[in-house]
Amino acid sequence: MTPTGTVTGAIIGNARSFIWWEWIFRRPGEIWQRTVEHVQMTVVAVGIGLAISTVLSLIAVRYRWTYAPITWIGSLLYTIPSLALFVALIPYTGLGFVTAQIALVSYTILILVRNIVAGIDGVPAAVREAADGMGYTRARRLWSVELPLALPTIVAGVRIASVTVIGLVTITALIGNGGYGTFINDGLNRQFSTPIVLGATLSVALAVLVDAALVLFERWLTPWARRRSTL
Amino acid sequence: MPDRSPDRHAIGLRNVTKTFAGSALPAVGDLTLAVRPGEIVALVGPSGCGKTTTLKMINRLVEPTSGTIEVLGDDQRSMPAHELRRRIGYVIQQIGLFPHRTIRRNMGMVPELLGWDGDRIAARTDELVGLVGLDPDLLDRYPAELSGGQQQRVGVARALAADPPILLMDEPYSAVDPIVRERLQDELLALQAKVHKTIVLVTHDIDEAMRLADRVAILNVGGVLEQYDTPDGLLAAPASPFVASFLGRERGLRRLALRRVADVEVIEGPIVRPSRTVAEALDVADEHGTSWVAVVDERQLGGWIDRAELEALPGSTSVGGLATQRFVATVGATTPLREALDVIVTSRSRMAAVLDGERYLGMVTIDQVAGGLDA
């Protein structure tokens, strides 16, 4: 089959040309490879984002006045359209992995910082006072009291960040980083609907799957919250 | 071992002032206050009197602006704040158990900070469960699964875990309902009888202070110490109109609650032995101005006989053979005078028999009870 007409024409074409199942079934290797690439891009971006955000959040919690400027910069990064950011970065970091990651990580900062700070702020004042009164040092209180109690809020942030990044990774394929976006680009270039639908569907499926996995992970990490319902 | 000689202090505040940033007036002004080892001291006063600030300065959750605080003979600043705090138990109103730790781990927090090994912490936890009267089945639960009263006991157990000589309690019972509160207060007194800690307790509830404390410090707004004395001393001689009004209008009744029947002189009362005659019994009733006599044999209270009944009988009849009615208005030697008063005013006899077990000790009337206030 040779796709004809515009992209739109291909997508709304007859049922047989909309998804060509045989084309999909012939490519298990390629689908697996794109999945691995997509997951890698996501994990690296969310991981670096989480590391940077944790540091920024701890600064914001310790020195309250820094919170406003940190979130202000985070919001600024968040509002830059991804394509515009690529164009802006390409002269410096070229086409490829680093440029893509800079964009992806930028998008996670605002979400993650807000959630980490909100999570730590949400620790009951009495718990903090009890920890201080018992002789916890500030670092120990943060590590073994505040961060564990902030986990549900932090994981909620990681879920939003991950889903956002999974969607964005389909766009970073434009600058050659693989992932499901490669299928979409391919389809767009050839005006062939099957890979477009495949890439989009897999991307959505991965987002749903990762979100669900993080929910389970959070439940596993916070047994105290789970047991509350047994009363 | 805490030193019990009166000239040594477990906690000594000397000219302590705290002025919070942005505030013109001090929260605590030039406060000097000493707490003896093994006593319970209550800091009481209206809101804004700096009682919580004072408490928090002892474990350095609040640093004084000026003045010195000695804890167990050392200046509290001679060690890092977190080390000082590990030696002082701390109980707060909202309890502040760690929601993400089981009850067992919550109770072992300070020992863990002090680097005790697991076996020692486990042994201590088992000991604490018995000490505060907690169901051992609760140990593996999370705080959210416990009732308010149970959480309070865990809070106290956690504060006592490393066996600190000093316990600071900030409104420990304000968040529980009155019935549970009274029970927890009794438990604290029973616990204190076993552990002999130096306890400083902050409360806005004067009744709680009077009930629990050996000495009460009454603070006025700005952390001014109005009076520092035993509950009885405060009630007997309030140092200022502020103290008097803070103690309330029922000061006399409160004092009665603190004193016991054994503290007053009892009278012999209108009693006759069974071997006496009806005529003699009537004389006894006349002498005491009562409409009844009680029959007492070998310090055993038999019962009472109505005067009208005696008058109907020949004067030579022996009292021993007569039917008596059970004496209902009785109190023990340890009964608080407040309760004895209640027994007296609600009885027809206008007296209460004082019994030590089965032994008759005498009678108390309103006069004896009121006389107890002069002492």
Task: List the keywords.
heterodimer, A: 231 residues, mainly alpha, MetI-like fold, 12 helices, disordered N terminus, B: 375 residues, alpha/beta, Rossmann fold, CBS-domain, 2 domains, four-stranded antiparallel β-sheet, 16 strands
Describe it:
The complex is a heterodimer of chains A (231) and B (375). With 231 residues, chain A is mostly helical. Chain A is built from twelve helices and no strands. In chain A, helix 5 (67-79) crosses helix 7 (97-121). The radius of gyration of chain A is 22 Å and the shape is elongated. The model of chain A is unreliable at 1-15 (pLDDT under 50). Chain B has 375 residues and is an alpha/beta fold. Chain B has two domains: 11-259, P-loop containing nucleotide triphosphate hydrolases (Rossmann fold, 3-Layer(aba) Sandwich), CATH 3.40.50.300; 262-371, CBS-domain (Roll). Chain B is elongated, with a radius of gyration of 27 Å. The interface between A and B is medium-sized, with 25 and 28 residues.
User: What distance separates the N and C termini of chain B?
Assistant: 35 Å
Secondary-structure element order of chain A, N to C: HHHHHHHHHHHH
Tell me the number of helical segments of chain A per DSSP (H or I, 4 or more residues long).
12
Which CATH class of the largest domain in chain B is shown?
Answer: Alpha Beta
Rg measurement of chain A, Å: 22 Å
Helix content of chain B: 25-40%
Instruction: Output the number of helix runs of chain B.
Output: 15
